[in-house]
Amino acid sequence: MDPRDGTGGMGGGRSADGRDRDGEGRARNARPRDGLGRPLPYGADGVERQPEGVVRTPGDTVVEAQALLDAGKPFHAHEVFEDAWKSGPEGERALWRGLAQLAVGLTHAARGNPAGGARLLRRGAAAVAEWAEGSGEDRPHGVDLAGLARWARELAETVERTGAAVDAEAVAPRLR
Question: Could you tell me which residue, 4 or 34, shows the higher pLDDT?
């Protein structure tokens, strides 16, 4: 049993309607997932999930997220950025949230959702550009925010123009 199901490995975890829920009714994600985070049938072989709630140094966050992006797993990279967003200093939360939005935008573009992908890529690009302007830092933790914003806007234009799913591994950005 997946320990994230909220049952402490004691079984259960599925509500009467068949959805993954903990004892208090909160959603849990015990279903296996593919490399783009899409749920697979119970019992299917999925891609190993990123552990949730991990506190990493900013440098470790960037290195782990880059490895996941390079492997064509932007959904999983988004989870790494989300951990930093939730556990990092208040002044950097908007930065990590913007990076998470970029990863989710790539996820949607790779899943064949050009409208959602383009929207999230642009939202993430605007967020990291705004954070850089407000903080006066254009390369926090070595991350090239201007380059990422440019990559995201260009990819958004491409997915809107073609309407085709992208290969997440082939178009993955360089964070540094």
Answer: 34
Contact 75, 101 (CB under 8 A): no
Does this model's pTM top 0.90? My answer is: no
Mean pLDDT for the chain overall: 88
- Cα–Cα distance, 11 to 18 (Å, whole number): 14
DSSP secondary structure string, the chain?
A: --GGGSSTTSS--B-TTS-BB-TTS-B---S-B-TTS-B--TTS--BPPPPSS----HHHHHHHHHHHHHTT-HHHHHHHHHHHHHHS-GGGHHHHHHHHHHHHHHHHHHTT-HHHHHHHHHHHHHHHHHHHHHHS-SSGGG--HHHHHHHHHHHHHHHHHH-PPP-TTTTPPP--
**For 104-129, how does the pLDDT look when each residue is reduced to its tens digit (9 = 90+)?**
999 999 999 999 999 999 999 999 99
Q: Sign of torsion, CA 37 69 101 51?
A: positive
Contact 139, 95 (CB under 8 A): no
